[in-house]
């Protein structure tokens, strides 16, 4: 019998690669050929995980903590995460915290629970690339709302009003946001919550860059009583410098906990056990000064890179208050940010992410610069970009 080939599911056509990962692979291939590359594309801290966290992970392995935890997570980690919300003045019930494989796992749990096929999820464009694909995975419809400097790159209640339809299942916002670093002020967060929950939809707030904030601490959307349909997603990846450990969490409204737990049991059984023990140490008071010193270093980097890029001709209308990215308008220098990024990597050995990773709103006019490498490398990157632009003109 002739071989008959299976065809990929229809949803695969709607799922694009996470371009920054492709860019990173290209940069690594050039490095393998002996090229020196300045990495301004990587969305993770360059610091190794802090020693007390690593030690706790090693201790857990040596103690034989290599079996599954409950699907909702290690009880002592859930308790430690809940206790940490005291900084926001919230006495959180650990029963509302579910530990997940990164914020990625948390976002998938929540969207699986709330999105029916064909229903829309509103999100800011530009925004975190994977969100629209998570929605597609569950046969929902990602509805990107263009945001720019006029609304500080945020999905405001006015924009929600303008884009609202009866089939909106959820609104997904991030504070601080990737790629713009914008932080949602408390009053606006309140107004968005009220707008969304009054219309029978769910609000999902991604707080993965909490802690990496350079002005006022960011407000959290966590609700003390857990009655409103607001999910807060977070992770140990960024502020805690644990990207590769794969631990995050979601704070769920009470009535959704059982559904999320059921999904977690089926989808991933549990987050990594030794990583969960390490995460307990990440929240210990002794670790805090180490993490704060790193945050200060990120601020120094931002304060160097922002004016340096402006001087080169990139426009960055707002000073980002959080995360470790600068989302720059490159239209004074190029009309095609993707081609620019490719040429910059190949010819100057500087990797930056083109806007098309983050959505469809003017991507050709934007580049994202991550300050996740040391000051000396940022300076080297800026010098190379200057020389590259001189050659172009
Ligand atoms: C806004 C945002 N949300 C979620 C994630 C996923 O992070 P993780 O799964 O490592 O926690 C990222 C990663 O870059 C991100 O930028």
Account of the 3D structure:
The structure is a single chain. By secondary structure, this protein is an alpha/beta fold. It folds into 2 domains: 14-43 and 288-392, Aspartate Aminotransferase, domain 1; 51-283, Type I PLP-dependent aspartate aminotransferase-like (Major domain) (Aspartate Aminotransferase, domain 2, 3-Layer(aba) Sandwich), CATH 3.40.640.10. The protein is built from 12 helices and 12 strands. It has helices at residues 19-32, 51-62, 75-84, 102-114, 129-137, 157-163, 186-197, 257-267, 273-282, 288-312, 337-348, 375-392, and strands spanning 38-39, 97-100, 120-125, 141-146, 168-174, 202-206, 230-235, 248-251, 325-329, 350-351, 353-354, 366-370. The strands form 3 sheets. Strands 2-8-7-6-5-3-4 form a 7-stranded mixed beta sheet, with helices on both faces. Strand 5, helix 7 and strand 6 (202-206) form a beta-alpha-beta unit. Helix 3 (75-84) packs parallel to helix 9, helix 4 crosses helix 8 and helix 10 (288-312) runs parallel beside helix 12 (375-392). The longest helix is centred in the C-terminal third of the chain and has 25 residues, at 288-312. It starts with 18 loop residues before the first helix and ends with a helix. The model has no long low-confidence stretch (mean pLDDT 96). The structure holds pyridoxal-5'-phosphate.
């Amino acid at each position: 019998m002739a071989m008959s080939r299976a065809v990929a599911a229809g949803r695969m056509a709607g799922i694009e690669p996470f371009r920054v990962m492709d860019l990173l692979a290209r940069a690594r291939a050039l490095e393998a050929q002996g090229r020196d590359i300045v990495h301004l594309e990587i969305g993770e801290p360059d610091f190794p995980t802090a020693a007390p966290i690593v030690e706790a992970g090693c201790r857990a392995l040596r103690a034989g903590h290599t079996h599954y935890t409950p699907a909702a997570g290690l009880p002592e980690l859930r308790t430690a995460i809940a206790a940490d919300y005291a900084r926001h003045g919230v006495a959180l019930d650990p029963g509302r915290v579910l530990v997940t494989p990164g914020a990625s796992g948390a976002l998938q749990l929540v969207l699986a629970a709330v999105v029916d096929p064909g229903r829309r999820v509103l999100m800011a464009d530009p925004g975190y690339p994977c969100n629209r694909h998570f929605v597609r995975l569950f046969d929902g419809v990602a509805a990107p709302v263009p945001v720019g400097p006029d609304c500080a790159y945020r999905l405001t209640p006015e924009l929600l009003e303008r884009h609202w339809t009866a089939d909106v299942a959820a609104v997904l916002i991030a504070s601080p946001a990737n790629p713009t670093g914008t932080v949602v002020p408390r009053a606006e967060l309140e107004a968005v919550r009220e707008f969304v929950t009054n219309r029978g939809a769910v609000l999902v707030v991604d707080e993965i860059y909490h802690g990496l904030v350079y002005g006022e601490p960011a407000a959290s959307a966590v609700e003390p009583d857990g009655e409103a349909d607001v999910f807060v997603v977070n992770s140990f990846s960024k502020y805690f410098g644990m990207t590769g450990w794969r631990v995050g969490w979601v704070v769920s409204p009470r009535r959704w906990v059982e559904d999320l737990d059921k999904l977690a049991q089926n989808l991933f059984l549990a987050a990594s056990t030794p990583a969960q023990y390490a995460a307990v140490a990440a929240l210990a008071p002794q670790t805090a000064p180490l993490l704060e010193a790193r945050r200060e270093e990120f601020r120094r980097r931002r304060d160097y890179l922002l004016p340096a890029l402006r001087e080169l001709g990139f426009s960055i209308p707002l000073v980002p208050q959080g995360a470790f990215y600068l989302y720059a308008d490159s239209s004074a220098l190029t009309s095609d940010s993707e081609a620019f990024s490719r040429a910059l990597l190949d010819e100057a050995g500087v990797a930056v992410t083109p806007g098309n990773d983050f959505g469809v709103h003017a991507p050709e006019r934007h580049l994202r610069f991550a300050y996740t490498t040391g000051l000396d490398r940022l300076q080297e990157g800026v010098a190379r970009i200057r020389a590259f632009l001189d050659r172009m003109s």
